[in-house]
Amino acid sequence: MYSGDSILNSVVLGLWSWFSLPTEFKYTVPRIHSEFINHHLVRYCKKHQIQFTRGRPYKKDDNAHVEQKNWTHVRKLFGWDRYDSPAVLEAMNELYRHELSAMMNQFQPSVKLASKERIGSRVRRRYDAPQTPLDRLVGCYEEGKVPLPLRRLLRQRDRQDPFSLSESIEARLIAIEQQRRDGHSVLLLQHPSPRGGVLHKASKASHE
Question: What gap in Å lies between CA 50 and CA 26, rounded to an integer?
Fold first, then answer.
């Protein structure tokens, strides 16, 4: 019989391996719901010296930096269609583990808010120079003290062609969509998206 602590430990180690994290956890900010916060998680964080905090009720902006990835890393790629077969799930996981992880973390730069200044009724925002997530992480260390996992990622980026990587991602997305359609008979209905453009709504039909 497994205890809650042993199950949590195996889950965290599995996530560490799944995401191929190059550095250790420093803090965690889970949602407030009971499926995310429990005594086992609190004990695990204390044991491994992980700073534990949580989002406030009805304050979705507490996790704004994470929530914005729902668009760039999920909806922008897969839209609002339903992907619910085990085969499609595994194909999506493979994409996130390999090509998409490399593209988003090694080649896609983003800006970070540096300061805000209120001038009358306006707010002037200043951003730092665009950097990829990998470059930002490397910048946290002094020269010559960059951990080995990060140095490996830097060498991997030097050998990788971003254009070939983009083509590989597009090919995988097409294959995943075709796999989804083959597994389920789906009637696609187009209707306006609240974000603009056209949103595809999938309704299942009988599979013959």
Answer: 5
